[in-house]
């Protein structure tokens, strides 16, 4: 089979011949129709992720067929029995296991779920990791309701865009931030009520004028700007963090947190039941993931360059 292979740190991704997977007991082989990149894949190429082995095949997201059955792959491996937190042995498809950026992949038979019929292969492949992370962040951890005013901080990435779509699907009022006016405009076109650039000084004041106090904030950045998110919070608001691309949070004000009765919640990925619920939610609401661009397998290294520059709105998909 053909596969996108990572040979080592600071080495270019290459498409090459690779042995077909040999399924172990209780595994099945999926013929991949499309796969998608996540920020996780970029971090792996930079050795900013545990459990890396070379050579390896990237990819946590994939959709394909098993004997004609159209399926999605749940990328969770070993979440464990506690629905509230992953186990110590938890891993994600695509490293250290071989992932979906190949013509075939072997996964546990219990990792398979039927593909929603309204989705193309490329749209379906965009769902698994980003959709699951957004679903847990918004609904399980964030307890999102239709009456909420929601802020998606840093819209454009896969998880943030899913969070936007999930909030809109239940009728919440949604606002966004981005460093790109183009991404704000695209979010508004999807249904966001407004947005501001976090590059503006005191941007939170402009946001407050648009949105009023925020009930739920979904954030992947952390960093110095996190204090501005706290300023925007309504009393008893929730802030859910699923990433920390801007690093630690300096000069955090505990007074604003306790006086406003805020909840700051961590979230990552999601359990197997949440994956089932997430796919059902997408099917029920006929949500179509935002796909920024579709690459061929041979072009896939170019997708990683786009991921590095963060120019995408939604997902970068590879058609196998």
The count of helical stretches stands at: 10
Structural class: alpha/beta
- CATH homologous superfamily identity of the largest domain: Medium-chain alcohol dehydrogenases, catalytic domain
Query: Which blocks of ≥5 consecutive residues have pLDDT under 50?
Result: none
Task: Look up the CATH topology of the largest domain.
Answer: Quinone Oxidoreductase, Chain A, domain 1
The shape is globular
Strand content: 25-35%
How many strand elements? Answer: 18
Search tags:
Quinone Oxidoreductase, Chain A, domain 1; Rossmann fold; alpha/beta; 320 residues; 2 domains
3D architecture notes:
This protein has 2 domains: 2-127 and 289-319, Medium-chain alcohol dehydrogenases, catalytic domain (Quinone Oxidoreductase, Chain A, domain 1, Alpha-Beta Complex), CATH 3.90.180; 132-266, NAD(P)-binding Rossmann-like Domain (Rossmann fold, 3-Layer(aba) Sandwich). Strands 3, 5, 6, 9, 10, 17 and 18 form a 7-stranded mixed sheet that branches. The chain has a 6-stranded parallel sheet with strand order 13-12-11-14-15-16, sandwiched between helices. Strands 2-1-4 form a 3-stranded antiparallel sheet, with no helix packed on it. By secondary structure, the protein is of the alpha/beta class. The model has no long low-confidence stretch (mean pLDDT 96). The protein has helices spanning 39-45, 121-125, 128-141, 158-169, 181-190, 203-211, 226-232, 254-259, 272-285, 300-309; strands spanning 2-6, 14-17, 27-36, 56-57, 61-66, 69-73, 76-77, 91-92, 104-108, 112-114, 149-153, 173-178, 194-197, 214-219, 233-241, 263-266, 291-296, 315-319. The chain is built from 10 helices and 18 strands.
